């Protein structure tokens, strides 16, 4: 059987351990019947478990060699392979306004961007799971107060409940990566509105963590030069000490400042 050569430019590390692939596939056991999109299937080690489980599966794969391999070895995917860059495709053109879930053994070099894209479709994606670099997986799941808690943590946890499920060693990949991997699952929470301007919320979070060693009074000085007295204590904290609700409160303060209130 002709194998696909891993391409460093695409961040490819092919999973070879079937037991790990089965565990990742099982993260979607409760979502059968809902359309499922696999990102970066490669040679289909995860794909086979998803198909065997009866998922309504489509896959998106940028690598032409992998697309040819999937077409040859997975006839069940006929008409279900999107040969394109996940970061560039319009998912509404694929699913319309219908809900769908996302899974994958995500390329390390774009894993953060993948989850930012999930956020763009948060009202359609009730669940997203998969494997990525352990450091990024831990960051996504990190609680406030953790050293790894950051921009991605806040933005995702505003809309999703995040679970860090298990760690995967380097030796189950070909070629082996230089770091361990982690598997996470994101489940959409009940939040329908943050109670603030969402675009401004992102700006506040990114600005705060842009100078994470500084207190909020200093890092947000340009956005909030005169914090209201009610935020006096909060402004002495660093960004990793704040939960989503506190960032919402900060965002509303910045909005009021801009409105001259």
Describe the structure.
The chain has 261 residues and is an alpha/beta fold. It has two domains: 8-188, Rossmann fold (3-Layer(aba) Sandwich); 198-258, rRNA adenine dimethylase, C-terminal domain (Helicase, Ruva Protein, domain 3). 33% of the residues lie in helices and 16% in strands. It is built from ten helices and nine strands. The chain has helices at residues 18-25, 47-52, 64-73, 91-95, 111-120, 134-141, 151-157, 198-210, 216-219, 244-258, and strands spanning 14-15, 36-39, 57-60, 81-82, 101-105, 127-133, 160-168, 173-174, 181-188. The strands form two sheets. It has a seven-stranded mixed sheet with strand order 4-3-2-5-6-9-7, with helices on both faces. Helix 2 (47-52) links the parallel strand 2 (36-39) and strand 3 (57-60). Helix 8 crosses helix 10 (244-258).
List the helices and strands and how they pair.
Layout: E1 14-15, H1 18-25, E2 36-39, H2 47-52, E3 57-60, H3 64-73, E4 81-82, H4 91-95, E5 101-105, H5 111-120, E6 127-133, H6 134-141, H7 151-157, E7 160-168, E8 173-174, E9 181-188, H8 198-210, H9 216-219, H10 244-258
Parallel strand pairs: 2-3, 2-5, 3-4, 5-6
Antiparallel strand pairs: 1-8, 6-9, 7-9
Helix pairs in contact: 8-10
Instruction: Return the domain count.
Output: 2
- Mind telling me the CATH class of the largest domain? Alpha Beta
Categorize the overall geometry. elongated
What is the strand arrangement across the widest sheet?
4-3-2-5-6-9-7
Estimated share of beta-strand residues: 15-25%
Q: How is the CATH topology of the largest domain named?
A: Rossmann fold
Low-confidence stretches: none
Enumerate how many helices there are, as a single number: 10
The largest sheet is: 7 strands, mixed
Helix content: 25-40%
N-to-C CA distance: 68 Å
Query: What is the total tally of β strands?
Result: 9
Kindly report the name of the CATH homologous superfamily of the largest domain. Answer: Vaccinia Virus protein VP39
Structural class: alpha/beta
| CATH architecture grouping of the largest domain | 3-Layer(aba) Sandwich
Please tell me how large the radius of gyration is. Answer: 20 Å
For the residues shown, what is the average pLDDT? Answer: 94
Order of helices and strands: EHEHEHEHEHEHHEEEHHH
